[in-house]
Acyl-CoA dehydrogenase (Pseudofrankia asymbiotica), 404 residues
Amino acid sequence: MPSGTSGTPGTPGAVRAEASGFRARVRAWLADALAGEFAKARGLGGPGREHEAFELRLDWERHLAAAGWTCLSWPKEYGGRGLSVAEQVVFHEEYARADAPARVGLIGDGMVGPTLIAFGTEDQRRRLLPPIRAGEALWCQLYSEPGAGSDLAALSTRARRDGDDYVIHGQKVWSSLAHQADWGFALVRTEPGSARHKGLSYLLVPMRQPGIEIRPIVSMTGTSEFNEVFFDGARTPAANLVGAEGDGWRIGMATLGFERGTFTLGQQVGFKRELERIIALAKRNGAWENPHLRDRLVRAWIGVEIMRFTALRTLTDATADVPPGPASSIGKLYWSTWHQQLGELAMDVLGAEAMLAGGEAGEPYEPRPEQSLFLFSRADTIYAGSSEIQRNIIAERTLGLPRA
């Protein structure tokens, strides 16, 4: 029996054969699903381009869900697919190869869902997980504030208990897709007079209600997937408190850990697609013949593969019941720097064309995908924890170095 092609259950050969069969099933399903009405969704969406064909991509999310291709890492008892790490990687690789659209449900799938599975009540799981899995409920993150971005512990948005509800007052900012979201998960201060990490709680908040005002923030790309969110007496039932009052910091940090785990594989789908398009552009316009640019493109390819292996290591820890920890900051620091450099590389591959505005004369400026990548990626080393903060976390909590 040839080695590596088949074998008894549990042997490396059997595992590879099983993964190969799974890959073929995923590839065939995507090829069929991305024909017909969803053919025009190929390649759409992603950072800086979340406005593209949003309704069509929402239909795609629900089509994925109906076929069982959402919530791949969730346990089956909570409606997930319960896939192994290897199977999740295969799916995301094939998703990228198929040029499938950027998903609109990743925040619920990759952040809220795992948080509720780990820390939520059975009632919360029963109510909130099925709509996420079905693509029927979209979520946003309500963490950063004008005075509490990378220094999140300085947040001041407050919530007070009023009977069976919490009443929320304050402001959040840089909330991705809040204008599309049905729900948000928020870190708020529930203990008057508390400071820093103390007295914070983790609340799940219905977004479509009086007392919530959402104002889009227009970025350099001309798009507005980020938002300011103002709370003026908005309410959420006390049953939407995750964990105990005052335990919000621990749960909130765990959510960020999930974001940098399974969630990262979905993010890398877009990164790899962007890189492949830049390589194709370089081959079309002759930039590939420039040894310096070709070397940078090869290094970018190596970089995205390193990201993949880092994500695999994080996922392997998750399957071994190792909770997300400060080491996940390494991944965030790495991908944000890599992606920013990719935007710069895209401009160099474009050459003089990078200075030309898109769109017809007299029409509003419409950036090319490469221009949008460059402009939007300026924010990569700031949001989700600035690079300076990530380096502090790595130094103090991972390497054990003294505080500055």
In short: Residues 55 and 297 are 34 Å apart (CA to CA). The chain has three domains: 12-104, 139-248, 260-398.
